[in-house]
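Late entry, evening session. Most of the bench is empty. Finally got around to the prediction I had been postponing all week. Sequence below, unchanged from the version circulated by S.P.
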Amino acid sequence: MRAILLAGGLGLFCTLLGTRWAIHVLVRKGYGQLIRDDGPTTHHTKRGTPTMGGLVIIVAVVVSYFGAKLLTGSPPSASALLLLALFVGLGAVGFVDDYIKIAKQRSLGLRSKAKFAGQTLIAVAFGWASLQFEDDRGVAPASPAISFIRVVSWELPTILVILWVLVMIAGTSNAVNLTDGLDGLATGASMMVFGAYTFMGIWQNNQFCVITPGPQCYQEVRDPLDLAVVAAAITGACFGFLWWNAAPAKIFMGDTGALSLGGAMAGMAVMTRTELLLVVLGGLFAMITLSVILQVGFFKLTKGRRLFRMAPLQHHFELLGWAEVTIVVRFWLISGICVALGLGTFYAEWVSGV
């Protein structure tokens, strides 16, 4: 528990102070956000706002995790190290994308195929490695079976497990990226989801079969408490970053932050054996992604008609005349409801014994 509190506190401290320094450096170097001309016209005032702030979140999470481990004298677990590798790896893909936008002065960075290739390489490596490193009980960081709140009774071949992990990571990282269109929206929603995973990791550890034997104890999860340390570090880092990212934003996380946070969500779901529950916990991200899918599908089926004024969904409400702050706060409320529903479902399963 001390490591969880330390990781969360250090993550908050690092981004709260580090982001201010990053803003100064990025402004001096001219690393500002480019705005698409086909987007809401109100966004043109944001042109030049420093981007790539996700670098601060990534550094803060890594520093706070290992700082907490050092201060408590506990060794890192295989699960946490793999999750951090996924977090940093996808952040690197996002960084390249952000840097190309700035260097070439265009609103689009990496080509879609190149970005997906980078995500695929990182996700496949993570999927394969997470099936290795079994502990003395023979439990690996990831399970070969798909899970909702616990794993199902049948297992998939290794290749299908890796493909499933790839779908989860690519889908979630892109979902957070789509949500990151308004000041503080993705940061605040991500903070809630990782806060939920902090609680779930603590609960799974407290009800761990080795510690608390019983009919409803968790035996298929490896390193739940250390995963909670990582989740707490990310929660704290997002909290501190939100101080500077809330409207009017002084800095944007960019693809660097969005891809890394989304990938970490998927990795956390895989390792806590709550893969399908992520759809509930991250309901806001799922809803915004679905709006893009529906918009594209409706456009093609009706030969040019649009279901929404603009996708992703948050921009539809902007074009309806809603203030940006109003949209962000109301979407945060939706995210909070989704997280509460996910946590309620998680706890209800344990209470009911189903």
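Two things to note before I forget:
The mean pLDDT is 90.
The radius of gyration is 20 Å.
Will write this up properly tomorrow.
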